[in-house]
Amino acid sequence: MNPHFSEAEEQEMYETLKEQYILLGEVRSDITVKSLLNRLERRYLEARSNKVDMVIFFEAEALALEQFKEKMENESVEKQDSSAIDNIFEKMSEDIKKYTRMPIHKNASEEIERLLGALIDFRKSFMNSFLKLKRLSKSIEHNNNFIDLMNLLEDLTYSKRDSELPMAFNSFRFALEVHENNPQEIEKCQVDMFKKSIFLFKKVKQFGIFLEQLAYKSEIIKIKKIPYMDEDLFLDQFSDALAREANQILNDFRLDDFY
């Protein structure tokens, strides 16, 4: 999907979704198309009103529609619940509610502000582990993926004081102020932040693969334990935890569709 769509393109995408719901009604007489369209319109207007990132909105809607179609194909029932599509979409929205919403700017979407909360949580969970890994082996300290992810973590999550934003998000806030009256530029800025976060987790997962390979090659490193949360994990276990947390955030924010 083109992340920099115009108002006309956004409207076209919305109309395309409506057409797909109408098509469902043509092949399934037990579906109340009017109800589905009304629910879609309500979600769309709420998304615009709440300054939801429309790229994420349309991606989530398209995914929810596909899941709804699959449900209809797999279930042999006489009547489908027209609220099912709402339930799928609402679950997507609920998935990010567990992350703290960090205030950035009045024009920042909820997804971006909760993404910052998720990134800070990730840093708190793994930073001590990363520092121990750095001391554990020169191979780790000089690994390019490790260097990249540490730099990205600092850029995206580190601030000297709680009242300050991390460097990347502070630049993002400044860009929102500069483009306050330009919705397309605001959208572009938000997409860029999602891309930076995706790049971080790409490096995290690549580093996890490197750790598994390193443990396989070195019996000494293999038996070392790494602190994670309230546990001490062997390297392969830590690598699994790293991938699990990265995948969870990517999935919750539907960023795995772009990964």
Salient structural properties:
259 residues; mainly alpha; globular
Summed up, what is this model?
With 259 residues, the chain is mainly α. The protein has eleven helices and two strands; from the N terminus they run ααααααααααββα.
Description:
The protein is mainly α and 259 residues long. It has eleven helices and two strands. The model is unreliable at 76-82 (pLDDT under 50).
**Average pLDDT figure:** 81
Walk across the major sheet and give the strand order. 1-2
Helix content: over 70%
Report how far apart the termini are: 13 Å
The count of strands amounts to 2
What is the radius of gyration computed over CA atoms, rounded to a whole number of angstroms?
22 Å
Q: How much of the sequence is in beta strands?
A: under 5%
Describe the global form: globular
Largest sheet: 2 strands, antiparallel
Secondary structure category: mainly alpha
Number of helices: 11
Low-confidence stretches: 76-82
Order of helices and strands: HHHHHHHHHHEEH
Layout of strands and helices, then pairs:
Elements: H1 7-27, H2 33-49, H3 54-74, H4 84-95, H5 110-136, H6 138-141, H7 144-157, H8 167-178, H9 183-217, H10 219-223, E1 225-228, E2 231-234, H11 235-252
Antiparallel strand pairs: 1-2
